[in-house]
Amino acid sequence: MYLNKDNADYEKYVSADKEAAQTQAYKTFKKSFSDNIADDISDADMKNYYEAYKSAAAEKAKMYKKGFWRRSASSTRI
Q1: In a 3-state reduction of DSSP, which class is residue 64?
Q2: What three-state secondary structure class fits 39?
């Protein structure tokens, strides 16, 4: 989800509903952002911040054997 890439085998290997997982990830990001940074952000701006976060996370992630991935040690969390 955070690699910003579609995977044709998603349904085969992941039991979670993709759309529900994406919606929940956005809601969690939005709550964390609102709780820790600012709570008066418009929905359009919040979506832009979320897309920027996903893009940054995709750049920092590295793929390993069998589809496992991890973020670099220097990555930050929100």
Answers
A1: coil
A2: coil
Q: Which two tokens stand for residue 6?
A: 């579609």
The two structure tokens encoding residue 73: 């040690």
CA distance 1 to 53: 12
Query: What is the identity of the amino acid at 35?
Result: D
1-42 tens-digit pLDDT: 556 667 777 777 777 787 888 899 999 999 998 888 888 889
- Dist. CA 4–CA 35, nearest whole Å: 25
**Structure confidence at residue 62 (pLDDT):** 66
Which H helix or E strand runs over 70?
Answer: strand 69-71
**What are the tokens at 71?**
């973020």
**Whole-angstrom Cα distance, residue 76 to residue 78?**
7
